[in-house]
Design a protein that fits this description.
heterodimer; A: alpha/beta; B: alpha+beta; 11 helices
Chain lengths: 214, 422
């Protein structure tokens, strides 16, 4: 799997390259600034891009902007955004096009290599991987809003884990219920959120989008 | 038409009453001037040192009442006094107070005003009453009182009219009506005239304005320094007790793991895992610390996005409308951000509100932030330390926080920060 990496700090860049290579990824480019990232992403779109939000030369949200721009030109280009902090605002912007293939994680999540690699693969496959922290910050005020107010607490819980990017099997494992029960919950969620039957990944992304788009 | 007459009469009546007050003020001024001059004369004997401050206080009280009266008449006069200074206790302090009172030019201008006002205030204050009384007298004689004076053999002259019979009485009544009209129309203006006379002597001068400004700047500078010092110390403590300690622990765990790698791989593995968890905690602490110093969204996107991000994270429904044609300077943005953050925290903590709104706009070189909630109201800026903190932070930029929070709500907090946008 071909990966483009954008991270300005040398130590972190080296660490991530090492980590990804050790897990069998092919790092086709490791850049340290926004303009270069734009170039690389558009010249030869990779299977997935792992991007730091803050990049030179502006040291603002250059990485995020470059990723969003690239996705406008190459719809659905899988991007996993890494940051020292997570914001609902950015998460919504990333999810806004509804195309999936989006990840948004704290840099600390790299510590758990298995989960991180899993997240990269999921994003590359068109799924989502939202940081538990950004999902958790949604929970407080979300449940009383339409259309999510129609969901039962259990269904909200399932949706929350879906937002983090869990598959049905993973949700079942986390909630310690049978996969069949989870399948029923997800079906209910899709019905209540009025999501027409299409392929499962796409519907999951749309459900997560509804979750964020309060 | 009828209401116009009553309004005119009421205004003239009020002005006349104020005129009476002015007369009383003029008399008081005369007394104060005499006492002040005497106590200054006794300065050399020492007794003056005790009497002068009291006199000056009386003089200032009288001048202040006059300013208030002038303010009611639409002639606003700002007090020009130099800010009070701290003095030592006891007799030394009294001497010091006496010295700076006499060094304040406003004291001497007050005194000059009082001296002139004994005449001006007296005459202008008395004029409306006299006019009214004159009109009433005229009416009374024209109505028939002239007959009494005729019987007693004294010729009564009303102004230039000798009232001898009903025809001249009618003329007198006409003249009284003219006097009444003159009173009704001129009384408010006469009293206002006294305010215009007072303004140059009781008002601000360039020097007093500068002195007050210097004092305000010194105060806000002290506050700013104190605040930034406290902030630095808080950061130092957080780093020292939190992150630094955790990093030491991580280093220790890793070095033990290194030693045990061959002899006890299982223990080494546990220690490495612990070190990893500790580093995650250290990161979380740093994240919170950074958010408190300068929120990343603010650094990356500016005020607009940062406030929107705040609204998303708030525990209640917050609608945001922002109309900024450019970016404010970084310190202003930071102040505005933390003020909104504090205000929204207050709303969710104390107001019992379901929804709040934040509006940010920029007009006439003032950044205006309005935070409204539908809660129970009754918030008091003097009680909340958070609100005082906002006020202090804003004062550094000559900004103000105004809180309108009637019992039962809604609460509207308006923050104004003078600044230019780029």
């Amino acid at each position: 799997m071909r990966v483009v990496l954008a991270e300005d700090l040398f130590l972190l860049r080296q660490g991530l390259v090492q980590l990804l290579q050790s897990q069998g990824f092919e790092v086709v480019a490791a850049v340290d600034n926004g303009p270069q990232l734009r170039q690389v992403l558009l010249r030869d779109p990779p299977d997935v891009a792992v991007v730091d939000v803050r990049l030179p030369p502006t040291f603002t949200d250059e990485g995020l902007q470059a990723a969003l721009e690239a996705r406008r030109q190459v719809p659905g280009l899988p991007v996993l955004v890494l940051s020292q902090h997570v914001e609902q605002l950015y998460a919504r912007e990333l999810l806004a096009d509804g195309a999936g293939g989006i990840g948004y994680l704290l840099k600390d999540r790299v510590f758990n290599i298995d989960q991180f690699v899993d997240a990269v693969r999921r994003v590359a496959g068109g799924g989502t991987a939202m940081d538990p922290q950004v999902v958790a910050r949604l929970v407080a005020g979300t449940s009383r809003r339409e259309p999510l107010s129609a969901l039962t607490p259990r269904e909200l819980e399932v949706l929350k884990l879906m937002a983090e990017g869990c598959s049905n099997a993973a949700v079942a494992q986390r909630l310690m219920v049978s996969p069949g029960a989870v399948a029923k919950h997800t079906a209910n969620i899709f019905t209540k959120l009025d999501l027409a039957p299409s392929d499962d990944t796409n519907r999951r992304v749309l459900a997560v989008l509804a979750y964020f788009d309060r | 038409m009828d209401s116009r007459v009553t309004t005119l009469a009421r205004q003239a009546g009020t002005a006349t009453a104020r005129g009476v007050l002015l007369v009383a003020g003029a008399v008081a001024a005369l007394v104060l001037v005499l006492v002040a001059v005497c106590s200054m004369a006794f300065m050399a004997l020492g007794a003056g040192v005790l009497a002068v401050p009291t006199c000056v206080r009386g003089l200032r009280w009288l001048a202040q009442r006059n300013r208030e009266l002038a303010g009611k008449l639409g002639v606003p006069i700002e007090a020009p006094y130099l800010p009070a200074r701290d003095v030592e206790p006891g007799i030394v302090g009294r001497v010091q107070r006496c010295r700076w009172l006499l060094a304040d030019p406003a004291t001497w201008r007050d005194l000059a005003w009082a001296l002139l006002n004994t005449v001006v205030g007296f005459v202008l204050g008395l004029l409306p009453v006299t006019l009214l009384a004159y009109a009433i007298e005229g009416f009374a004689f024209s109505a028939g009182l002239w007959q009494l004076t005729r019987d007693s053999g004294v010729q009564f002259w009303y102004s230039f009219i000798p009232i001898r019979g009903w025809p001249t009485a009618a003329l007198g009544a006409l003249f009284s009506a003219a006097a009444l009209a003159l009173w009704a129309f001129s009384a408010p203006w006469i009293v206002k005239g006294q305010a215009y006379f007072s303004k140059p002597l009781l008002g601000q001068t360039q020097r007093s304005r500068l002195a007050q400004r210097v004092r305000q700047l010194a105060d806000t500078r002290t506050d700013a320094i104190d605040a930034s010092d406290a902030e630095l110390r808080r950061i130092e403590r957080d780093l020292h007790d939190g992150t630094q300690a955790r990093l030491v622990a991580i280093g220790m765990k890793l070095s033990i793991a290194e030693h045990q790698l061959d002899s006890d791989p299982a223990l080494a593995r546990t220690l490495v895992a612990e070190a990893r968890d500790a580093s995650a905690k250290a990161l979380a602490e740093l994240r919170n610390l950074i958010r408190g110093i300068h929120p990343p969204v603010l650094a990356e996107r500016g005020l607009d996005a940062a406030v929107r991000a705040l609204a998303l994270d708030a525990a209640l429904d917050v609608t945001v409308s922002i109309d900024l044609p450019g970016r404010a300077a970084a310190p202003i943005e930071s102040t505005a951000y933390f003020a909104v953050s504090e205000l929204l925290t207050n709303v969710s903590k104390h107001a019992g509100a379901d929804a709040a709104s934040v509006h940010i706009g920029h007009e006439n070189n003032v950044l205006r932030i309005v935070v409204t909630d539908d809660g129970r109201g009754g918030a008091d800026a003097a009680r909340g330390s958070g609100l005082r903190g906002i006020q202090r932070r804003c004062a550094t930029f000559d900004g103000t926080l105004f809180l309108a929070s009637p019992e039962g709500g809604p609460t509207v907090a308006t923050l104004e920060l003078p600044c230019a946008l780029s």
